[in-house]
Every structure is written in structure tokens, then in C-alpha cells.
Amino acid sequence: MKKPDYIPLTGYPGYSEDEMLLRACSVLDVLSTRRTIRDFSDKAVPRALIEACIAAAGTAPSGANHQPWHFVAISNPALKRKIRIAAEAEEATFYEGKASQEWLDALEPLGTDTQKPFLETAPWLIAVFAQKRGGVRTGMDKKNYYITESVGIATGMLITALHSAGLGTLTHTPAPMNFLRDICGRPKSEKPFVLLVTGYSGKDAVVPKHALIKKSLSDISTFEV
Ligand code: IYR
Fold first, then answer.
1. How far is the CA of 221 from the centre of ligand 1 (A)?
2. 180 C-alpha vs ligand 1 centroid, how far in Å?
3. pTM for the structure as a whole
4. Best mutation site among 112, 116, 171 for ligand 1 pocket (most ligand atoms within 8 Å of CB)
5. What is the pLDDT of residues 16-50, one digit of tens each?
6. Which runs of E-coded beta strand occur in 75-211?
């Protein structure tokens, strides 16, 4: 097997342990204030801000470094309207039949329903697509690996970047989402992964108390030392 080329690693400045803990805690502080928002202001958000956040997501690790994602950022009001109409039609079939009673009961504390006005109010919708085939460079047509994991990590990093910038986000997953592929003009080989809604939070935005219940560190982790 041919040996790969390497370059020296950079970007790890060697902080003191005290400084590392401070930095980790400051990330925790920032992320602890993130809420899923369903009430957005219509105030415009500069394209450059969205571009920087998508570029941050694009640094995510991925299977064989194939970066199997594509982000379609939509501020065009006609497209947002199309997406709202299609999403609300899907949600109607979900809430009025498809969803099990157990699922509806789980959603009750969130107060969600078929109406998705934020899909038009929010200044940006970011449709995230997962690519079945691709490669390390655009235009390649090789098999991709760990696609869901890779796109999930990139989406998490996108949410982190948007939230760090001060923007609200909503991970919206109308199911099925295939209409997004047609509206966004993406190829059949791509699967819609999530529709991320982003913008400033509305003046009187509220969050359900249910969302504040977070499992403790000891609930979510086990240390074997
Ligand atoms: N997609 C629907 C239902 C929904 C499902 C889950 I799981 C949520 O955490 C929230 C909503 C909707 O957006 O209303």
C-alpha cells in the first residue's frame, strides 16, 4: 500500500491545564444557553454570517474525509413559502393520522402542531443534504461512508456556530422531507437530512419548560478509571 503524504500538525497551542478547563467551561456556558426556537424575528441576517457558519460546519470530521454534505441556504421568500406549504402538508398527515399516540404524547410538552409560520418568518432556512456518493473533491463519484454520522456531526457544528454567533436555531424534520430535494434542485443521490431554521429570536419568544430538563453529567456519563 502506498504511504500517504503528511505535514506537521498545527493548531494545538498547548494551553496550561487551568486554561484548558476555563476554555472548556466557557464553551459549556455558551452551549448551555442554546434553546430550540420556534418564534423568529423577520430581521435580516447578513449572508456573510451564514456563510461563516456553514464553513465552520464544513470542517467536521467525516468518513474517509469525503465530506458527504451539501447545505442550501435559502432567504428567497418565494422558496421559503413553497417549503412552508410543503412542510405543513406533511405535518398535517403526521399530526392527523400517521403519528402514534405515544409519539403525540411525547410531543405534547413542546406544544408543536401543524402550523410552521417560522418557515417564512425566519430570514434563513438551511436545508442539509446527505450525499450517498462523492469523494474528497467535488465532482468525484465514489462511495461515501458513515454518511449519517458525518452529516450529523457537521449539523451539530453548524448549530454550535450559529448559536455562538447569537442566532436562534430550530432543527426541523418534516417527514418525509423529499420535497426539499425538488424545491432546492438537488440530485436524487442526495437525501434531505434536516431543515435548519435560523435567525434572531422573536421579541416575545418563549420556550417550553420541558426543554429545560437536562440530564445531569452523572446521568449521561460513566467514568471507568
Ligand atoms: N416534525 C414534527 C413533529 C416533531 C417531532 C419531534 I421527535 C420533535 O422533537 C418535534 C416535532 C414537527 O415539527 O412539528
1. 26
2. 17
3. 0.97
4. 112
5. 999 999 999 999 999 999 999 999 999 999 999 99
6. 124-131, 133-134, 142-143, 168-172, 190-199
